[in-house]
């Protein structure tokens, strides 16, 4: 059933490993600044997708939009319709632990959530979405080798950006590092499809202090995270 209603790519146009960003302009930035021989395979709904070469390895980059419903659609299609094996989310997050600061890298080992996304699986319990270990292990090794500051642990994937009463800071007492809006759905889709996933995050704002980056900085300054993801991708 290629292409889909959300992705105009034809069979074979998407690589086995895809880097994904909420902002499609971040995907465009990665493609134009790091990949060679790039081909734009999708612009439906402005959700740009590109395939190109990084150090000779064929890799794709694509936007996924904001929130679990949007990411859930795009990653489901990539895994189940386009035979993608590995998805690496390169996203932004808000720090909720006080020792996590602006521009720090966070590897989401697990993703707690306030969402009902897992209800569709009709499990008699609570599913704990986690990263694929060998992707996490390799990504951490890249960060260590390049001497980047990073954190590994649990993040909160929230359905709510503007909360009326509940603060994500409440999750810090459980050791949760940061809050974002997509990792749990990515990990669940990967688990259900028996595929691989990792969420790498750059801290764009500190919920605990109120400090934050500009929207332009979020688009173009996350090069450390991008380069870790690309180096990981060529090993897969």
Automatic annotation (TrEMBL):
Classification via Gene3D superfamilies: Nucleoside phosphorylase domain
Residues engaged in binding a purine D-ribonucleoside: 6, 180-182, 204-205
Enzyme Commission no: 2.4.2.1
Entry-linked InterPro entries: DeoD-type, Nucleoside_phosphorylase_CS, Nucleoside_phosphorylase_d, Nucleoside_phosphorylase_sf
Gene Ontology BP terms: purine nucleoside metabolic process; uridine catabolic process
Name the record gives this protein: Purine nucleoside phosphorylase DeoD-type
Keyword Transferase set for record: yes
Natural source organism: Alkaliphilus serpentinus
């Amino acid at each position: 059933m290629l292409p889909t209603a959300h992705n105009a790519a034809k069979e074979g146009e998407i690589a086995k490993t895809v880097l994904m960003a909420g902002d499609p302009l971040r995907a465009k930035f990665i493609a134009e600044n790091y990949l060679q021989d790039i081909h734009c395979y999708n612009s439906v709904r402005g959700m740009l997708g590109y395939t190109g070469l990084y150090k000779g390895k064929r890799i794709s980059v694509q936007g996924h939009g904001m929130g679990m419903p949007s990411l859930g659609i795009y990653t489901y299609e990539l895994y189940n319709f386009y035979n993608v094996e590995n998805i690496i989310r390169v996203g932004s997050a808000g720090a909720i632990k006080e020792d996590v600061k602006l521009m720090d890298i966070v590897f989401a080992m697990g993703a707690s959530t306030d969402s009902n996304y897992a209800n569709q699986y009709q499990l008699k319990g609570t599913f704990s979405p986690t990263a694929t270990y060998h992707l996490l292990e390799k990504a951490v090794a890249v960060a260590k080798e390049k001497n980047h500051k990073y954190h590994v642990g649990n993040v909160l994937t929230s359905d709510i950006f503007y909360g009326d009463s509940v603060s994500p800071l409440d999750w810090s007492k459980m050791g949760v590092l940061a809050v974002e809006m997509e990792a749990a759905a990515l990990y669940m889709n990967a688990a259900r499809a028996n595929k691989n996933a990792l969420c790498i995050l750059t801290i764009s704002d500190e919920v605990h202090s109120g400090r934050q980056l500009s929207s332009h900085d979020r688009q173009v300054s996350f090069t450390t995270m991008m380069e870790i993801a690309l180096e990981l991708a060529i090993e897969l």
